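Trying the structure run again after the queue cleared.
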Amino acid sequence: MCMKQSNFILSLLIPGRNGPGSDMDVYFQPLVDDLQDMFVNGARTYDASKGEFFKLRAALLWTITDFPGLGYTSGSVTSGEAACPDCNYHTCSLRLSNGSKNCYMDHRRFLLDDHPFRFDIDRFGKTEFRPAPTPLSGEQILECTKDLNQTFGKDPSRKKPTNKRRRKGEPLVILKRRSIWFKLPYWKDLLLRHNFDIMHIGKNVSESLLNTFLGTDGKSKDNLNSRLDLQALGIRSDLHPIEVEDQLYLPPAPYSMSPAERKLFCQVLKGVKFLDGYAADIRHNVHVNERKIIGLKSHECHIILQHLLPLAVKKILPTIVSAGVIRISNFFKKLSAPVIRISDMKSLEADIAETLSFLETIFLPSFLILWYT
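Done. Tokens:
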């Protein structure tokens, strides 16, 4: 695509150890300079409808990235204890010793003060009275980053950078540098500076659900390490591994499917037909006999999550599981609607906190990792 004449000036930034990483500010420097000039000085522009010249000014509303791209763009930490860009120091993260991943739970903080989930000890193990964390303002970010020095450029020896884990007693780092976007005079006053790409998130959520339901080796969120983490945490005793004749047996979870149910699940998706131009033909990606779904693109995952997954699980999985899947599906469907109202967004913000809290009672902690990555 980038080699076609119409897109010939499209830039390619290759990720990896030699990718730009934190040096993205060097790449953004010419753009920031142009944006600053367009906001402060503007450009003399001709209005053909009125037959007169006027001063045209421009401002950047926000950036749109995936989760790793957020760290490069904003200079914030996007992994580990403080991975949430809004919660920052108040991020509720839990390191899973067996799965070697960080999971993020305690979504009840975002519910209303009188919501029943906050007082449900049976399903959550404890009550929750903490308020929702407040995101850092632009002024606070400037204050936190005023003493940070950024050295641009790669190590000439090309040594692979080592990720040092924070030691006990060391302060938690949530900002690695001051983002170059703060050179824009209005950037600190914006309420929303960075957005996530919904197609990336929808693809990750869809694949997590599909692989967990089908028990795909290496991709399912329910495996031996996940069950051992449950045992180490002392929760959900009905799902702890059981040793049977020197082998560990994993009790079936509410979302577990038998081989026959997995085959039926794949047959349902295999038989779906779409209108011309609505979606790609996913029948080539569904392997009924192997009970696998592989090679889905972002748009195909988008269609499955919003329209097909609720229909496929409604008659196969228990009501409590299908209800959670339907809630996730409806959230992404409304978020992708062609017409969005402010009242709809406020309702979705309350609904997704309740949905994530509901999922904590169904799925394992390993399922509640960052879906943005």
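The radius of gyration is 24 Å. Worth checking whether this holds up in the mutant runs.
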